[in-house]
UniProtKB/TrEMBL annotation:
Residues 1-138 form the Peptidase A1 domain. Pfam families: Asp. This is Peptidase A1 domain-containing protein.
Amino acid sequence: MPTKLPYTLPMTEYTFAVLDSGSDGIYLQRSTYDALFSRIPEAKKLKTGYWRVPCEGRQELWVCIQGQVYRIPYHDWVKKPTAAGNTPEVVAEIGPGMCQTKVFGSSPGPTLLGATFLRTVYTVFDFRRPGYERIGLARLTSVPSSST
């Protein structure tokens, strides 16, 4: 059974997020990004500031929006290994069996939830009434596997 990350993210810097279907990743405030990955067993921070996690795992990433929890399976937020992602220098720094993620730290600004998040939910954009635009999200009954 998948386990949740043993940490509630301190999403207090901003009270809003941007849904961006044109971006594949999830972009968090740098402090939130570092707090998340520092709690993941065996995660390692590179000299560049990016984190790597074990290529195999079961921990889900949980995103809570207005009291609703949306779960992102491990295989959807962790990239499969590529030669470009784990150069000999990176492997020398962190060891083999480590992978990049689709979660990134960014400069101050809102949290950005890209396709990594959006492929795990039903999304409805309702723009019928000017001034009352809204976006609806619902959990999928089963989350499709990522193709990357």
